[in-house]
Design a protein that fits this description.
Blueprint: E1 5-8, E2 27-30, H1 43-46, H2 57-71, H3 85-101, H4 103-115, H5 130-152, H6 156-165, H7 167-200, H8 207-240
Length: about 240
Amino acid sequence: MPQPVVLAARVSAPKESQTPRSELLCAIAPVDPSSQTQCVDDAFARLKLPRRPYLDSEELKERYLECIKSAHPDGEANPLSTEHPAEDAAAEINRAREILANEVHRIAHFLLLETGSDVTQHRVVPDGLADFFMRLSPLFNQADSLAQGIREEASPILKAQLYMSASHLLSKLSEIQSELQSQCNQARQELIEADRKWIQGSSASTEQTRVQVLETLAGVYQRLSFLNRWLNTLHERRFELTPG
């Protein structure tokens, strides 16, 4: 069995003449398995699923329903009991499903189990997304200011004019949203490819292959975590600037 590894993030020093650009560099170092966090509940094991970075949503749903049914074999718990093992088991199963159903949470959980490293503590904007960050910041500020004006405007006529003035901004938001979605799709393809390599190498993988897959997943996590958050924010801003 290859030793677990730790992923440590580093941030490059910002250039003085430019807006700071953060660079995630994954440093790999073997760790003693006994030093890993023992209290982490394995969501994959909880739902009796193989530990892998990518999961089919239908398979996850089926396994979740099987596990939740086994936690409540009679359909209900004893309300007179001071201890509710069935409820506790169901709560743990629900938590496991929440983790595995979210691709970003699942990747972070997978890396934590495999390496002992919590990648959620190393949140930096990858270089490949730094330009998006610079473009989004002023757009979000404009959208927030315009949305506030719409909320505070009492006159229906003036409110309608504000909505009309938002059309150009909405066009820009829509354009960058399409670009971000394309980046998301690309990151998900990398996730699927990393999952394929992980499964193929599970029986006879070299340490080098293992480290490469874990490095790829750490990068995919960083990208998807920012992309998904930006896409959610874009959706909210577009909703606020669209007449109801």
